[in-house]
Amino acid sequence: MVRSILERVGGPGPLADLKGSFILRKDQVVPVDLYALVMLRDFTADRAVELGDTIVLPFRRQNILIEGAVFRPGPYPYNPTFGVEQYLALAGGLNRFAQSVDNVYLVTPSGQMKEFGPDLKVEPGASLVVPERNFSRSEVVALILAGAGLILSAATIFVTLRK
Fold it and tell me: Which fold has domain 63-130?
């Protein structure tokens, strides 16, 4: 049984995702609610273990990872009262290469992507992603001016050679 194996190894670690644990058995996944088993002492949640099984306890990240076009990307402590805007402010806000806040999306710990909305709930272990623009406004203007300069230089050389 899973409970007896956990007792032999000293129990789950403090950062283990007890609700996301499972048994990997050949080509199938058998979910195990270790929260009910370990914390609530509900022995009906215990599962039999067979030879060759692997008990998987995923790591539960307790922070929020902010990535992309912000001034200070990286991990930040989870705060249950914070929304997307507060986490973006912690990361220094959007930089000049960022797309608008409407394009920000959240990747949940289970891998699900959620688009930005005023009621978007941020949970521990999630990642906030701020997409970057392809070019900033100043870069677009610089490219246009450089292209115009090349065309003007080519026209001048062409006129000079024709004389």
Answer: Outer membrane lipoprotein wza fold like (3.10.560)
